[in-house]
Q: What sequence folds into this?
């Protein structure tokens, strides 16, 4: 299975934070040391990239067949 055939189009992403909170996001970008994301309620949010549990975020999105990558 290749990444092109495994992953599906994302309807939303899950971002796991180090404080054990998981947020759903319609989109996300990384700007320097910040992650900017849009909630499903269309609110723009910003958080320190260091507050994101990158490995767990990648895992829970991969489990849903959604590609999620952070630097």
A:
């Amino acid at each position: 299975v290749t990444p092109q055939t495994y992953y599906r189009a994302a309807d939303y992403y899950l971002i796991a934070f180090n404080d054990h909170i998981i947020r759903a996001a319609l989109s996300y970008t990384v700007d320097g040391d910040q992650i900017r994301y849009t909630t499903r309620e269309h609110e723009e949010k910003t958080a320190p990239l260091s507050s994101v549990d990158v490995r767990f975020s990648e895992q829970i999105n991969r489990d849903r067949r959604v590609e999620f990558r952070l630097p």
